[in-house]
Amino acid sequence: MKNSTKYLVTICVAITFVILVLSIQDSWQHTGQVLMGEISNAFFVPGILILCFGALLWASNGGAFDMLTYAIMKLFDSLKKDVTKVKYRTFYDYQEAQKDKKLSFAHYLIVGAGFIVIALIFYILYAQY
């Protein structure tokens, strides 16, 4: 997927979350300080969720979950009838196969951080009211 498309899709999902949070809080009825606080909340929720998802992908790309994934694969391999037909014989084989399967995560970190910055701006406006 092209880089700009990743950003666009992530922003659209985040804006959908913002609208959902604003609707749940019934923010369309409020004005002034209350509205600023609710807008801050609405931008913070998707911002932190997307930022944390990007951080999990970053950790996964670094190999933080490789041993757990390999252990679960070996557990399911041990339940097969033909134990000799396994995909990866050793953890080293699994790691070598995973080197080329890295997922991009920068767009999640950037969009999540951007939404948190927007939330902080609205929080400052809320606090100054």
Rg, please?
Answer: 21 Å
The total strand number stands at 0
Instruction: Quickly count the helices.
Output: 5
Mean pLDDT across all amino acids: 88
Q: Give the SSE order as H and E letters.
A: HHHHH
- Strand portion: under 5%
Shape: elongated
Residues in helix, %:
over 70%
Alpha-beta content class: mainly alpha
Main sheet? none
Low-confidence stretches: none
> End-to-end distance, in Å?
43 Å
List the SSEs and their pairings.
Blueprint: H1 3-24, H2 32-61, H3 66-78, H4 91-98, H5 106-128
Could you name the key traits of this structure?
129 residues; mainly alpha; single chain
Structure description:
- The protein is mostly helical and 129 residues long.
- Helices cover 74% and strands 0% of the residues.
- It is built from five helices and no strands.
- It has helices spanning 3-24, 32-61, 66-78, 91-98, 106-128.
- The chain is elongated.
- It starts with a helix and ends with a helix.
- The model has no long low-confidence stretch (mean pLDDT 88).
What's a concise summary of this model?
This protein is mainly α.
